[in-house]
Amino acid sequence: MRNxxxxxxxxxxxxxxxxxxxxxxxxxxGVKVWDNDDNEYIDFFAGIAVNNLGHAHPNILKAxxxxxEKVIHCSNIYYNENQxxxxxxxxxxxxxxxIFFANSGAEAxxxxxxxxRKYTNKTEIISAKNSFHGRTLxxxxxxxxxxxSEPFKPLPSGFKHVTFGDINELKDAINDKTAAVILxxxxxxxxxxxxxxxxxxxxxxxxxxxxxxxILDEVQTGFGRCGKMFAAELFDLRPDITTVAKGxxxxxxxxxxIANEKIAEGFNPGDHGTxxxxxxxxxxxAITSINTIFDEDLVENSEKLGKYLKNELLKLKGKYxxxxxxxxxxxxxxxxxxxxxxxxxxxxxxxxxxxNCTADKVIRLVPxxxxxxxxxxxxxxxxxxxxxxxxxxx
Length: 394
Fold this sequence. Notes:
Helix 4 (81-93) runs parallel beside helix 11 (280-295) and helix 12 packs parallel to helix 14 (373-393).
């Protein structure tokens, strides 16, 4: 089917829960994708920071094929060697931890909240305003953006929101019921917003002093996205619980709770579970994805080309006064404008680039970690042309 026919038939069969771009993706290779009308795009969105290895990476295809010929799913009622090997690999990345496998970032965060409450025997969770932690009832409540939670009241109790970066507000919110603080090191959906090292280290210190768990939501920032394997490394943080998803398995669905060994003991058989988490196929694909990130030096590539992308965007900021800020780490960059950026997303697509607008006025750029300098250069040229057109039009 062509794009038009697919788009026309969607409302007949599929719930209206997304504001979609008017193309249907047919296939991809490397950093490029093609739609059903055979139009070619360079993907600077990567499935919301999922496709770290780009599209149709040969290592991922090989892992999927070989494992699917053995066993795809066997349930967590049984032991699973691939799951064990992946847990060992994650333990090497974040030592002295134990693992729970889920299917998504929302599930990982939901499970982390349950674990924090179970382990501490306390009820309250503090999160940051402007955050995003998922779409389940608990995680939209933890999410510090009312637009996601207001339509679904009554919401679960036991959640507080404080201003991101305001340590005094956090201190004031803590009481004897506080089980955990959950933070994103970089607020992705909130507009690629972060704070400074002193803030994060003070949060870590307070949590230790008050016997409160620190949960870092690395769903979007993990696995090389920010120029480090995990964004926690940017600020020398050692959380009690880390949640990951998106970039872990080369596009295959997976979420993980990574908790230190002591806190992991809070869960006993029956306390938590999942049908599909950590299947042999998902685990094999994640092992391959993580090893490929190391083998191809993609963390270093993210740091190096992220700096190049950011510097080129800063040059554009010097040319156009409607660019308010360029921020981020590695290949997770936000360009904040003083105009809405939905039209820019459309113009970029028509020029052959897939980008995203978040928080209304922030262009979010999260290309595959395999991106090359020359691909960034032609994107910057196209973005310059778009900005010039906007400047002349205004």
